[in-house]
Amino acid sequence: MTDKQLVIIGSGPAGYTAAIYAARAGLVPLVIAGSVTAGGDLMTTTEVENFPGFPEGVQGPELMESMRAQAERFGAEVLYDDVETLHIEPRRHRITTALGAEYTATAVILATGSAYRELGLAEEKNLSGRGVSWCATCDGFFFKDQEIAVVGGGDSAVEEATFLTRFAKKVSLIHRRGELRASKAMRQRAEADPKLEFVLDSEVTAIHGADKLEGLTIASTADGQTRELPVTGLFVAIGSDPRTALFAGQLDLRPDGYLVVEGRSSRTSAEGVFGAGDVIDPVYRQAITAAGSGCVAATDAEHYLSELSDSELNTKEK
């Protein structure tokens, strides 16, 4: 059993930024980055053009590798393993990894992220970053004057579809029911957009393309009839699920499953446990907001550990 002041579970912009700040504060954090998911979603993203400081854009994996290297430069340790169990106990949180390593941590930062829901179709993952996307804000710019599709019927899907009409020649909004679930205001805004077409009572049954997306097969949910939709972009907007299985039942979660933190802080319902990144954020879900919350979590953890150290010192002096 190895004792650590601070363990960061998860990587990506939130985990690595937390590691940079914590390492510079002398906390020597351990980052358990994941065996396959190290670096988070940006490891499967090609061009990132909206992260400050990169006027020509940067490849997602390059950005994550730079953050990791910066964290290690200041003394962070990065472990490419997965956390199997986390037992939350004040001042002695116990962590076991898939490869059998065991740690105790005085403080823990949870940067486990969230996962976009997928359609579950063949070629969906293969064409990720080559026509298939889960983030209009990230990738919409790359589809100027093209015909694209958005799948979903809630506020997020309608918002993404209307946002994408700024770039695309035409946007088809595909929803399996006959009426959108989005709010009335969102629906009215979408209906007034001349570049947006509603494809209701329909679902995507196949995704086509070898090196890039070339089209979709959509089927009627009413009578099963199929037709081809020649689009070069597909945005899946059917929601996301925070990765909270590791600590569900030990920490307070919102009704939608996201980790609860106090106000603008990163403090969770347990002493010495802090949240950062997409696991606490169902709204913005951007690399830059995740990085910002990683800074907040590291700062909160540093203050917690400092106050704990001062308290123990005062107790010894008495």
TrEMBL record:
Gene Ontology BP terms: removal of superoxide radicals
Cofactor note: Binds 1 FAD per subunit.
Record carries keyword Flavoprotein: yes
Residue runs in coiled coils: none
First-tier enzyme category under EC: oxidoreductase
Domain FAD/NAD(P)-binding: 5-294
Catalytic reactions on record: [thioredoxin]-dithiol + NADP(+) = [thioredoxin]-disulfide + NADPH + H(+)
Keywords tagged on the record: Disulfide bond, FAD, Flavoprotein, NADP, Oxidoreductase, Redox-active center
EC number(s) from the headed UniProt entry: 1.8.1.9
A Pfam entry, by short name: Pyr_redox_2
Annotated GO MF terms: thioredoxin-disulfide reductase (NADPH) activity
Annotated GO CC locations: cytoplasm
SUPFAM superfamilies according to UniProt: FAD/NAD(P)-binding domain
Origin superkingdom: Bacteria
Quaternary structure note: Homodimer.
PANTHER family for this protein: THIOREDOXIN REDUCTASE 1-RELATED-RELATED
Family of the protein in this entry: Belongs to the class-II pyridine nucleotide-disulfide oxidoreductase family.
Protein name: Thioredoxin reductase
Taxonomic lineage of the native organism: Bacteria, Bacillati, Actinomycetota, Actinomycetes, Micrococcales
Gene behind this protein: trxB
